Amino acid sequence: MALTSGLGGQLSIDLGALARNWRALDKVSAGALTGAVVKADAYGTGITMASKALHAAGARFFFAATPDEGMAVRAAVPDAHIFVLNGLYPGAANLYIRQNLMPIISSMAMLEEWLAKCVERNEAYPSAFHFDTGMNRLGFRLNEATLVRDRIQALGYAPQMVMSHLACADQPSHEKNRTQLALFGSVMTQFPGIPASLANSAGLMTGRDYHFQMVRPGIALYGGRAVSGRKNPMAPVVTLHVPIVQVKEARTGETVGYGATHALSRDSRLAILSHGYADGFLRSLSASNTRPGGKVVIRGKACPVVGRVSMDQVTVDITELGPDNIPNPGEGAEVLGNLLGVDDLADAGGTIGYEILTSLKGRYSRNYVGDGNLPPG
Q: What is the CATH number of the domain that holds 355?
């Protein structure tokens, strides 16, 4: 692939694939509303364009992590229903109200501040409540459910939704999933008639028992693997091509990269890419003589990384391309695409697809392709 001169790497986001993924998940969750998690700049794809495409596909409920992200969704999709996962930031209630953002309340302090603002303005502004059923992150403790119920009943207030979050949904057979499901069911007995939400992408795929009234897919929307050990059914959304800046010959015994951790076992041909950990190509994708690293695709063939990944460059062994198939400087190497996807790169780096996607903040142009504006159907 030839890259446009002067633009460096090129990140492409397929909005049509994003829309198709949402619709596919919406069919699986039939009977429950399907939201869309767009936190972390919509998993690196761009919160503005992703929100618009998801809205065009049929999404109406959006989940951001912070109020700033919520405001970005509001600007992109004025009629969206937007929940803020990190809850009510102290002193920020007026901002949430102005922007029509719903905090997901997770502590008594948050609840009291939000209720005080509702009383002050004589209006029951919407929110959601988060109960911790086993993550030990955000959330009311289970023994606070009765206290929360009594407090809101005294004021005649009701949340829009009660939710929790699964710790092990990527492992469907894990006993903790069933434990959390049971605990969440016990919480919901304190809030009869209030919609409930438990399932993320993996929970959505695990079974209808986890769906309740709303599901909250995230990683699956963006083409990432949600459930371990299963073939990923989602369409890839992101491709990334970066330029080759030099091709050089190296001799047996010479070392590559910082620390001299990779000595060549043969005469080799190397391609130096304008791409590094500053661009989201994780340092854990480095290779040495004791462990393999990541790969990139050059001229249709997966070529291994050699040596440590640098801030601005990564070195790839292209010897196997042969002497008559040498790429030219300026030619593109495929970091993410059809042959090597987000999860392939994650597996090679000892991480998860979430980290790969949310690390895509590098020095490359962002290009939106596909039709993300098709009507639902």
A: 2.40.37.10
Pairwise CA distance, residues 303 & 95, whole Å: 50
| Two tokens, residue 218 | 């995230």
CA distances 151 to 11, 86, 114, 197, 355, Å, are: 49, 21, 12, 21, 39
Please tell me whether residues 209 and 340 are part of one structural domain. no
Q: Are residues 168 and 280 in the same domain?
A: no
Report how far residue 138's alpha carbon sits from residue 39's, in angstroms, rounded to the nearest whole number.
16
Cβ proximity of 220 and 199 under 8 Å: no
How many CB atoms within 10 Å of residue 272? 18
Tell whether 163 is in a known binding site.
no
Please list the residues that pair with 301 across neighbouring strands: 298
**Measured on CA atoms in the order 131, 135, 138, 144, is the torsion positive or negative?**
positive
- pLDDT tens string, the chain, 377 residues long: the values are 555 544 689 999 999 999 999 999 999 998 999 999 999 999 999 999 999 999 999 999 999 999 999 999 999 999 999 999 999 999 999 999 999 999 999 999 999 999 999 999 999 999 999 999 999 999 999 999 999 999 999 999 999 999 999 999 999 999 999 999 999 999 999 999 999 999 999 999 999 999 999 999 999 999 999 999 889 999 999 999 999 999 999 999 999 999 999 999 999 999 999 999 999 999 999 999 999 999 999 999 999 999 999 999 999 999 999 999 999 999 999 999 989 999 999 999 999 999 999 999 888 899 999 875 544 43
- Taking Cα atoms as reference points, which of 182, 160, 175, 183 lies closest to residue 60? 160
Cβ 190 vs Cβ 151: under 8 Å: no
Q: Say how many Å lie between the first and final Cα of the chain, rounded.
A: 34
Q: How far apart are CA 138 and CA 125, in angstroms?
A: 21
- Split into its structural domains, the chain has a count of 2
Q: Please count the CA atoms within 13 angstroms of the CA of 162 that sit on its side-chain side.
A: 22
Residue 151 is assigned to a ligand binding site: no
Looking at the fold, whether 200 and 246 belong to one and the same domain comes out as: no
Distance CA 214, CA 147 (A): 25
Q: Which domain holds residue 153?
A: 31-222
Give the residue numbers annotated as catalytic, written as ranges.
39, 258
Tell me 330's DSSP state.
T
